[in-house]
Amino acid sequence: MRIDTRLLLIALLFVSVLPISGQNRQDFYNIDAELKVSGGIEEIFMESRYAGSAPFLIVTVKDNQTGRRYVIEIGPAWFFEYDVHKGENITVVGSLRQPRGELPLLIARKVTLRGETRIMRDKYGFPAWRGGRGRGRGWRRGRRG
Amino acid sequence: MKRTRLLLFFILPFFGVVLVFMVLSSLDRRYNRLRIEELAGEQLRATAEILSVNISHLLGENFSAEEIFDLYAGEENIYYIALLDENKEILAWLSQFEGYLPLSLESDIGKDAWILESPAGRIYNVFVSLRDIGGREYFLYLGYSLNYLEAVVRHSRNSFWVILGLILITGLCVFGGFYQLQKKYLDKEKEAEEQKKQKERFREISAFTSGVAHEIKNPLNSLSLLFELLRKQAPGELTEDIMLGKKEVQKIAGIIDQFSDSLKPINLQRERFQLEEAAGEAWEALLRNRVEKSVRLKMDVKEAVEMFADRRLMVQVFSNLLQNALEATGEGEIRMTAESRKRMVFIEVRDYGSGISNRDAPRIFDPFFSAKKQGMGIGLYLTKKIIEAHGGEISFSSRPGRGTCFRITIPGE
């Protein structure tokens, strides 16, 4: 399901100015800490995660099994291409980051929504939207996660 | 060499050479790749060592990890870099790709560099330890682009395909040429074999015919003499019949002479003469034996054409061609043109008669072949033989019902 371009632009205008507490930290994809989370979407945000990159689609999800809440960094909205709604079930395989005093962050590698699966990164965390052979290279800073 | 042998002899070794080239080239590229990777690894380790020393120094001067990495941001060949503390907790990192830092502390990380395949290309990874001035241990993780190596390998691969393409094209051209030559050679050989067989057959026929002609002519001569004796001694009222008999015998002898002449090798007695005169002589001789004279000969000779040839034989050639034209033409005209150009004489004899059928056309110069009921099949054969003996050529074009044109090209000197 494709996002309506006009709706996406309006959403970008709003969410880009929203201060999202605890979601402004830039993390790397830790291949040693993969986790699968499956649950209902509680919140949907857009956030500029990496300098020089388009805003990322962020959702908070409550895991059906553990009841824990996670902030999930899905990826650039233009790349994800699916419309997401609150209350929808989503399954994410990703790398878990555990910021102190905040909700745990999951950087998505594989997202399953409405029975369709979208690969966001390869198994080493290379972002799928970056294509190959150094396309769109530029430095992205990270800090201790 | 037969075509299948040509394939086996040339094509297979060629593809063998191509295969050897491919294998050697592949091994060479593999060796070069390994060697370059080795050199790149050494270079990366050296780079990591230098970075380690610099970072140790900067840490000793109380620079933060972020401040240190600011100094390295923008380095094209470093895909990612991370600084870890003594517990291998990441203090700071930089990556050219969002969140991409493929460091697994759970896997074995040794001093050796390792290569990681990524959509951005092959990345050389190195993980080294360093100490600051205070002796505190840190770790540096570095991912170095091997794209320049990939470019070298790609260039080598492209060169390989270009060279292979050139070899294949050249090979195909050469073997195509060989094949054509071989085909021509085989066709010629086949043709020569056919000619040889024909000659042998003709020689046998000639020997047989000469023998028969010789055996027939002796009794014919006796018969002719006998008719002469009879004419002298027989009553006057029988003279005419006896003369008719003698004439028929002489006619048979003439036919046999013609046969014999056609089988003998031609011995040319060249002399200078005017073509028009010789042709006229042939035409007059033909007309003498014809009752009806409704066909006329139109000679079209622009200038006096002088020939240097065997006059008697050339008269025979003209006679044969004009006789054929005459027989094919009920009434009307026969055209004969001649001209001399560049030491060659070009002659055309054209009639507007019945023409030659497509079925007969390929065989009209064959000995003993005739499309006419009363023909012996010697005239055109002999004509061709005489023209070729003079170093010339004869050809014809014909359309059934529209007439025939014979063309002779013969050296004028």
How would you characterize the overall build of this protein?
The complex is a heterodimer of chains A (145) and B (413). Chain A has 145 residues and is mainly beta. Helix content of chain A is 10%, strand content 39%. Chain A contains two helices and seven strands; from the N terminus they run H-E-E-E-H-E-E-E-E. Chain A has helices at residues 5-15, 77-80, and strands spanning 34-47, 56-63, 69-76, 89-97, 105-113, 116-119, 140-143. A five-stranded mixed barrel of chain A has the order 1-2-3-5-4. In chain A, strand 4 and strand 5 form a beta hairpin. Chain B has 413 residues and is an alpha+beta fold. Chain B has helices at 3-60, 65-72, 147-233, 239-263, 275-288, 311-328, 379-389; strands at 78-84, 90-95, 114-118, 121-131, 137-145, 270-274, 295-301, 306-310, 332-341, 344-351, 393-399, 403-411. In chain B, strands 2-1-5-4-3 form a five-stranded antiparallel sheet. A five-stranded mixed sheet of chain B has the order 7-9-10-12-11, covered by helices on one side. In chain B, a hairpin with a 5-residue loop joins strand 1 and strand 2 (90-95). Chain B is rod-shaped, with a radius of gyration of 49 Å. The interface between A and B is medium-sized, with 34 and 30 residues. Strand 7 of chain A pairs antiparallel with strand 2 (90-95) of chain B.
